[in-house]
Amino acid sequence: RDSAPLAVRAASEYAYVRRDIVRIARIGALLLLLLGVLHVLINVAAVVPI
Question: The dihedral of CA 26, 32, 35, 39: what is its sign?
């Protein structure tokens, strides 16, 4: 069994979790930005009439 402290093992084992959370946050921010651009184009600038 590894004698390294639990925090050290957890940090190395779950580094991918941080990567995934960053990726999810980045995609969420991109979707919010897209939603904002569409709101401006449709509702404010009336570029796309509904």
Answer: negative
Q: DSSP string spanning 1-46?
A: ---S-HHHHHHHHTHHHHHHHHHHHHHHHHHHHHHHHHHIIIIIS-
Whether residue 50 lies inside any domain: the answer is no
Residue 1 lies in a domain: no
pLDDT value, residue 2: 63
Task: Decide: pTM greater than 0.70.
Answer: no
49 domain residue, yes or no: no
